[in-house]
Amino acid sequence: MYDQAQLIQELASVTRPVGEARGLPSHFYTSPAAFDFERERIFRDGWAAIGFGADVPEPGDARPVEFLGMPLLLLRDRTGTLRVFENVCRHRGMILVQAPGNFGGVIRCPYHSWCYSQDGRLRATPHVGGPGINTHPSIDPAQTGLIPVRMGVFLDTIFVNISGVAEPFEEFIAPLASRWTDFADRPLFAGRDSTFTLDVACNWKLAVENYCESYHLPWVHPGLNSYSKLEDHYNIEQPGHFSGQGTRVYNPRLSPTEAFPDFADLPEYWDSAAEYVALYPNILLGVHRDHVFAIRLDPKAPGHTLENVALYYTSRAAAESDEFADLRASNARLWKDVFVEDIFVVEGMQKGRGAPGFDGGRFSAVMDSPTHMFHSWAASRLG
């Protein structure tokens, strides 16, 4: 466990103004102890992304999720309401749902067949009082349902607060929902064949840091930079919540003759603009006039992260029909190529954290301020 006074002293340089600051110390990217510390301070005590509504599209759908060693269950009940529970039976702690599926009636534990309704209530306890006796005074169904997890949804991303101590979800999401009010309450349609996962040998924070800034575009993304140049970008900064970058010249070249339908009644600004923000801690979002994407970071180990990518469109036809199949494939391929281009950078920075003389690095006061903002937020949560 970290000594609090020593930790505060160590992180003091991280929270200085961007032109004077140093980055987070290397052990926060390599140490199992630091990884465990972050799990408590950042992921359990705050709001963290664990999945997408599109993972459970139909009433009765349930999907198990392991998040930082915690077994959770995403479920869409009969009314279409999203719920999150701990994925364990209240009897002996057996994992309830082993694989994604649809549970039209109840969820049955495979161990002793205790059954739960889709709202988490305990409905059946076979032979709990002896052979053929299915009730017992020691088991109160009203007190022995599935354990609910505090949750919220924004742009189809499912967030949870494990510890229960975070601010209300509405307060957490308000700054970004206000900035993106043009997108926040619109229906989104998950693209068919438009999800993929990248397995990356880096700490989760490096994926956030790289996503925050456009400084690297000319060298890492020459294709993207050919039509959305470095000078076309601007920084986005909301201290304590999110940071990132936007472009004034969103103009993808997917087809000379076809295009996705735009969201209806968008302000003129979005005709040519797009924005990309990292909502701390672990969701990277992009909004455009014709589609939205989300990258959910799943930290697996100090140097191992899964990037789960989902693309969404403005209508069911754009998301699912054969008419737009080629365009969806082109769009998914474009973004996958861009995200893959980042892998050697974040993995290279991870390897660089093994250099004994590296002191966290410096920031460009102009180009790196969104990344520094994330470092400063992480330092404040940890220290």
Keywords:
Rieske Iron-sulfur Protein, Naphthalene 1,2-dioxygenase Alpha Subunit, Chain A, domain 1, 7-stranded antiparallel sheet, Rieske_2Fe-2S
The major sheet is characterized as: 7 strands, antiparallel
CATH superfamily of the largest domain: Naphthalene 1,2-dioxygenase Alpha Subunit, Chain A, domain 1
Mean pLDDT: 95
Q: Report strand order across the widest sheet.
A: 11-17-16-15-14-13-12
Percent strand equals 25-35%
Give the overall shape: globular
The CATH class of the largest domain is Alpha Beta
Q: Number of helix segments? A: 12
Protein structure class = alpha+beta
CATH architecture of the largest domain: Alpha-Beta Complex
Count structural domains.
2
Q: How far apart are the first and last residues' alpha carbons, in Å?
A: 13 Å
Describe the protein.
- By secondary structure, the protein is of the alpha+beta class.
- Helix content is 27%, strand content 26%.
- The chain has a seven-stranded antiparallel beta sheet with strand order 11-17-16-15-14-13-12. Strands 4-3-2-5 form a four-stranded antiparallel beta sheet, with no helix packed on it. A three-stranded antiparallel beta sheet has the order 1-10-9.
- Strand 6 and strand 7 form a beta hairpin.
